[in-house]
Structures are given as C-alpha cells and as structure tokens.
Specification:
The protein is of the alpha/beta class. Helices cover about 40% and strands about 15% of the residues. About 45% of the residues are buried. A 6-stranded parallel sheet has the order 2-1-3-4-5-11, sandwiched between helices. It has a 6-stranded mixed sheet with strand order 7-6-8-9-10-12, sandwiched between helices. The radius of gyration is 24 Å and the shape is elongated. It starts with 10 loop residues before the first helix and ends in a 12-residue tail after the last strand. Helix 1 packs across helix 2 (about 20-30), helix 2 packs across helix 3 and helix 5 runs parallel beside helix 12 (about 305-320). It folds into 3 domains: about 10-50, no CATH class; about 55-165 and about 305-335, Response regulator (Rossmann fold); about 170-300 and about 335-350, Rossmann fold (3-Layer(aba) Sandwich), CATH 3.40.50.2300.
C-alpha cells in the first residue's frame, strides 16, 4: 500500500493509496453495491482511519453552484443572534441565495456534527459564530483548506485567515462600565461567559480598563464566569448568590451577554434585590423589550442586523470573486450604551 502525504485527503489520494480506481472509491463511500464487499470495506476502513471528509467545494461544483449558505449560531432564540440572522436573510434574499440554519446550543460536539451535516448538503459557503465550548477548530480548518468560503461573526477565531465581523467588544464593555462609574457605583461586579471565548476576553479587558482608569482596583471575587454563556440559569444564579455573600458585596453588576443580562435582572428581582437601589445593572443585550422591563434595562446595544448584513456580503464576495482572495479584513462595528432606570445615578435614587 502506497503512503500518501497530503494535508487533506481526497478521493484520488485514497484511490492511489489502495491501487483502485477513483470510481471504485466514490462508489464505496456512497455504500454502493456495484463493487465487492471486500473492496468496499477496504476503502471505507481506510477513509475512516484517515478521517476522510468529502470536499464541499467539489460537491458544489458537481451539483452546480447550489447558492446555499450554511449558518451556525449558538442559539436562534437569543435576541442578538436572531437579529444577525435577519440581517443575513436580507442580503441572501436580494442576492438569491438560500440559507440553512443550525444551532449548537453552546456544544462543541453539536457544532462539529452540524457543520458536517451542512457540508453534505453541498453548501456554497459557511457563516459561523463559535459555541462557548469550542477551543479546537480543526473541523473548520479542514473545510477552509479544501476551499470552502467561510466568514466568522461575533465569536471569532484568529487561527483561520478569512473575513470576520465583530462588535468593538472592548470599547462596549469599557463604555458600559464607565457609565456605571459615572453614575456613582464603585463596587462593580462582572458576570461573563465562557473563559475561552474571544468575546469574553475582550469584554473583560474593557471592564478592567475602565476600573483602572478611574482608580478602582479590580477584584477577582467580583468576576464570575458562566461556562455555557447563560444557557443554564443555575450557573447565573450561583454567580449572583456568590456575589451577594461577599463581605463587601457589589453595588452594581455589569453583564456580558444577552441571556446573562436578562436572566440576572429576573433573578435579582426574584431574590428581592431592589434595582438599582441595592444593586444597579447594565449589560450587553439586544432585547427589544429592554425599555419595558421592570426596571427599564440599561444596555450595551450591538448592531446585530448590520453584523448579519456585513457577514453575508463578505461571504458572497468570496464566493463570487473571479480571482483567489488573499487579503482579508476584520470589520468592527460600534457597541452603543443606552442608560435606563436599572443604572440610575446614585444621586437620583430615593
């Protein structure tokens, strides 16, 4: 058996390694009975051993340009991601592309499985925001090497050289924390998402920078991580209870995601904590009902719809380019602080 030294295994590589025809490999991988059981098993075992994945670009060419885009998001019912999807759809409809949406529920394994499923449907390109559990992106790198156009949005990774669309997470967190400080709050806690997330890292940096600039020493006990980005309410409840039990408990909480922000508001209310009299609250959220909540919720607003538009435009640019694209860019959108009753200035409180 010949040894093949390719970074990404192709059907031709398998055929060469096993001294069989390309047609036989293709039939075996489709589990066709047109070849012998012995040959079919030999090919399938080799493909499995060497982690063979069908080339999505080759599939797309065989079927003609499917004009189908795969979208992978953590959760569709998250207001931010639903707005991103709306932005993607607005461009897809104009350009006559179809979209297939899958959600990871913050699971790395589900993310891998969903992406594999999307590629078997001969997608033309992939838009993805990584799950909270994702550390290793080899499953995405393999597709990128094979030539599948990919654009990251919101939760990105720097290991792949491609277009990315993010909000200015550092500045948004810096401005949000500064808003609380200007309103008179000094003991500001931070409830955030998974430790390994790019978004978590940037927002934590912005939070700490605002404290230091205002001569407030960051307290490690005031920073709480939610491994599932708030998808499991108990982890937020635990974070809140730990903060309330600290000797010098916070007078404000700055939260780092949609679900964490709205769940924190609900849990503080359920625990009988008066907002903002006993605890102010300000955080990232795109809920349309922020002004209708009790109290009205101070937020760092992210332009989700625009993010979706930009990401889709960038992906179509890669797909429809007549020349290989060698220069990629990261588009950074602004995050805007909107102050409401949940973070009223201390001087204004009764």
């Amino acid at each position: 058996m010949r040894k093949i030294n390719f970074g990404v295994l192709t059907i031709k590589d398998i055929a060469k390694a096993l001294n069989v025809s390309v047609s036989s490999v293709s039939k075996a991988l489709k589990d066709s009975h047109e070849i012998s059981e012995k040959t079919r098993k030999l090919i399938q075992d080799y493909a499995k051993k060497h982690n063979f994945q069908p080339n999505p670009m080759a599939q797309s060419l065989r079927h003609g340009n499917s004009r189908s885009i795969g979208i992978v998001v953590p959760e569709i019912d998250n207001p931010f991601f639903s707005q991103v999807i709306n932005g993607i759809e607005s461009i897809a409809n104009k350009k006559q592309y179809n979209i297939s949406i899958s959600q990871t529920h913050e699971s790395y394994e589900v993310e891998k499985r969903n992406i594999q499923h999307l590629t078997t449907r001969a997608i033309t390109g992939l838009l993805i925001s990584l799950s909270a559990e994702t550390k290793n992106i080899d499953h995405i790198k393999a597709l990128h090497v094979q030539g599948l156009p990919i654009v990251f949005f919101d939760r990105v990774n720097e290991e792949i050289n491609t277009h990315k669309v993010v909000v200015n997470n550092f500045q948004g967190a810096y401005d949000g924390t500064t808003e609380l400080i200007k309103s008179g709050y000094k003991r500001i806690a931070h409830i955030t998402s998974s430790r390994n997330s790019f978004v978590t890292s940037e927002r934590l940096k912005g939070y700490r920078a605002a404290l230091k600039e205002n001569n407030i020493k960051p307290q490690a006990a005031y920073v709480k991580y939610c491994a599932h980005s708030g998808r499991e309410p108990d982890e937020i409840g635990t974070a809140i209870d730990e903060l309330l039990k600290t000797d010098n408990k916070p007078d404000a909480i700055f939260t780092a995601s949609d679900r964490i922000t709205t769940t924190t508001l609900s849990m503080l209310n359920k625990r009988g904590i008066s907002i903002p009299n006993e605890m102010a609250l300000l955080g990232f959220t795109n809920t349309q009902f922020a002004s209708d909540l009790n109290p009205s919720l101070s937020t760092v607003f992210q332009p989700g719809f625009e993010m979706g538009e930009r990401a889709m435009e960038m992906l179509i640019g890669i797909i429809e380019s007549k020349r290989p694209i060698e220069e990629f860019q990261t588009t950074e959108l602004p995050a805007i602080v909107i102050g409401r009753n949940s973070s009223l200035p201390i001087i204004s409180l009764p």
